[in-house]
Amino acid sequence: MLEVKNLRKEYGGLTAVKGVSFTLQPGDIFGFIGSNGAGKTTTIRMISTLLEPTSGTAVLNGADIRKDPMEVRRMLGYMPDFFGLYDDVKVWEYLDFFAAIYQVPSRERNKVIDNVLELTDLTVKKQAFVQSLSRGMQQRLCLARCLVHDPHLLLLDEPASGLDPRARAELKELIAELGRMGKIVIVSSHILPELADFCNTVGIIERGELLAHGPVDRIVQSMQPNRILKVKFIREAGEAARFLSEMEHVLNAQESGDGELTVDYTGDHEAQADLLSALIGRGFRIVTLREEQADLEDVFLKLTTGAVN
Amino acid sequence: MSRTIWQDLVVENPMLIEIHRFRRRFLTFSAGNSLNSAVLALILVCYAGLVLLVVQAKGDIPPLAVVMIQTGVLTLFAPGMLHGAIAGERERRSWDLLLVAPISKAQIVVGKFIGALAALGVAATFFLLPILISAIAYRRTNWNDLIEGEAVSLTFGAAVCGLTMLFSARVKRPFMALGASLGTLAVLMIVLPSLIGIFGNNSLGSGMVDVFYLHPFIVLTQIMQISEDRGDYSSSYRNHFVSDPSWGWPQAFIYLAFAIILVTWAAKTLIFAENEVKFIPKGNKADA
């Protein structure tokens, strides 16, 4: 379990992170969302023991980042937003080097290296020089490096930046697999729709302040307590709007042009089915009825102002 | 040194991969690194020329003169190899990956230092051939003096490695470390002796020699002179079978001590956080 407790970082007069707190359980994939300069990387660097917090702390499986950083380092894998690869070594040598650093016993290293290469789909590149790999492969190698010591926590800072769509899709699947393996994964990214695909919890940070955090559905719901229904009619929707305005659970029904109505609705799915029946019963000819889902991007735009430190 | 420290820093230090990397980078021909390959080819040609020259001289070149050439090569070779040891990690941003790993500062610095020493050892091994040819052919070879000279040369090389390591640990860019190391060596070994020579005594008299007690070339010149005098039957040194105690081993031990101090200093002054290290740190830690 990872407990981040009131983590704060100040640089002179600037407060980069203002008391960030959250808790994650094994298997959680936490999407860390924020604009450039919001404080994501600083938070991740503090959790990874690279930066000393001004105050507050984080505890990973009982080990405090301030009191026992070496123990925390043994349990975490950190993938920064740059590769930091040695270009004059082969893929297996690179992994062997980090396996040695993480004190993986030498007799187990070959097996571990083969396993992480297989997981990251780099087995065929085992004997290749690191500099000969494509960007996507280098990114996967970085992830493989993070996994050689079977960490409990993975900190991935902008892991998908600069990758082509195929490499992104592969990386996304890989991260989801790591979550299924019971690891805590913290992923920071600007690409919000991608995060929504595989993160079960998110945190939105702006100017060093964690504005919201928790399960994706809950955050989305908290931002949009009412349902937004879009109903498209064959003809003029004005009469239907008047009819709907008088119905239960309907807060507002407005024409949005082209025979479409936008309905602000508080009812549940059962009530929604009744509403559809009522409309059809009154002879309104409906082409489509869909519920407009707010996504992470909407939530992010609603919560944040775009200001940076 | 306890067994654990010895194991951590030497036997089981994962940073010893540096030996492998140094070998691949500096001692292997590779199509991918044409500059290094060209430099290596040039070095091999020069080396072959040196061996031929020593063979051709048929005993006219004292072996300590070859040790002097070796010292000059090591003095240039060490900063060339080590300037990127830590500054290079910063530049390619692999530094953070080491910092979040459960490895100590001492392991990083000592591992890199041992890697450089191994490369220096290889270079010194290559020099053994011309030194041995010269020693066997030269009629006044004193093996004790030769070993002393070799010790001075190698320990000075180690001290230069320590100096370069310190600069590399304290600056952000490898070329800054290279410039600072070569600049310091140039000042200490060329500029300062020249200035003292000009404004001091106008010549390297006996008093001047004492001023440069730690200058490796003057130390080697002194050892050579003593060795020559010993071989000269008209000399007062004729019956002496040990070197003048002021020259040779004392400097070798001092160089070794310098190397240890500089490497320890490098390890102690590494600033791990922020990825921002300035040579003269400001008072504010956040700026460091």
Structure description:
- The complex is a heterodimer of chains A (309) and B (288).
- Chain A has two domains: 2-216, P-loop containing nucleotide triphosphate hydrolases (Rossmann fold, 3-Layer(aba) Sandwich); 225-293, Alpha-Beta Plaits.
- Helix content of chain A is 37%, strand content 29%.
- Chain A contains eleven helices and 14 strands.
- In chain A, the strands form three sheets. In chain A, strands 6-7-8-3-9-10 form a six-stranded mixed sheet, with helices on both faces. Chain A has a four-stranded antiparallel sheet with strand order 2-1-4-5, with helices on one face. Chain A has a four-stranded antiparallel sheet with strand order 12-13-11-14, covered by helices on one side.
- In chain A, helix 6 links the parallel strand 7 and strand 8.
- In chain A, helix 3 (91-101) crosses helix 4 (106-119), helix 4 crosses helix 5 and helix 8 packs across helix 11.
- Chain A is elongated and about 75 Å long.
- Chain B has one domain (3-287).
- The two termini of chain B are 33 Å apart.
- Classes of the chains: A alpha/beta (309), B mainly alpha (288).
- The interface between A and B is medium-sized, with 33 and 27 residues.
